[in-house]
Amino acid sequence: MPKIVDHAQRRDEIALVACRVVAAHGFDQASMVRIARAAGYTTGMLAHYFDSKQEIIIAALRLILRRIEERLTRPAQQGSRPDLLELLLEALPIDAQRRTECAFWITFWGQVSADKRLKRINAWVHREYMRLFERCLDVGWQEWRQWPATTREQLVRSLVTFINGLTASAVANPGDWPAPKQVAQLRLQLQLLHAWAAGATLTPQALDA
Asked: Is 188 left (phi over 0), alpha (psi -120 to 50) or beta?
């Protein structure tokens, strides 16, 4: 009896291997041959699932975003209000798996400015990240829905900007950004943002400051 192949799973496996190859060797050096070798397949097998390296990279982006979303949203399904800090740590490079994912993102960002299609993909990724982090803040802060829409938007944008910057710093200089230091900085940022939001709600004119 012939073996039944789960093609969707195989595509995910190849995409995940591509993520590791890009994180380890950079975008330009992540050739189809190198990805195929790392995955244990021939280049012909890769071509059966993907037309080009760019298609593999896009599949890896979607896969990692889906994995991050699953981690970020899993605690909210348990019925109790999750700890916001613990929730958002899922997006930082604090362990081997997340360092690989974040290194992939940083490498991808370096290619965006020169490729129109990647720019469109990056815009979609950014919107998805904004949606995910807004969801985290909603479940993590009781006051979230009481704050004005303008305050909530600024909070999400500030948080995404901070996490992107911390991610880039930790990937580029891992020795300077061990996990405990990342946790401490994220904790401080959340405290500052929460205090600002509470103050802005009491004094709406602060939004224009």
From this structure: alpha
Distances (CA, A) of 159 to 103, 131, 168, 186: 19, 12, 14, 9
Distance CA 16, CA 59 (A): 9
**7-208 has which fold?**
Tetracycline Repressor; domain 2 (1.10.357)
26 residue type, one letter: G
Please state the separation of Cα 49 from the chain's center in Å.
24
pLDDT digits (tens, 9 = 90+) for 48-72: 888 888 888 888 888 887 877 787 7
Q: What is the pLDDT of residues 116-164, one digit of tens each?
A: 888 888 888 888 889 989 988 998 899 999 999 999 999 999 999 999 9
Cβ contact 114:191 at 8 Å: no
Of 94, 122, 120, 129, nearest to 106 by C-alpha is: 122
Domain boundaries, the chain: 7-208
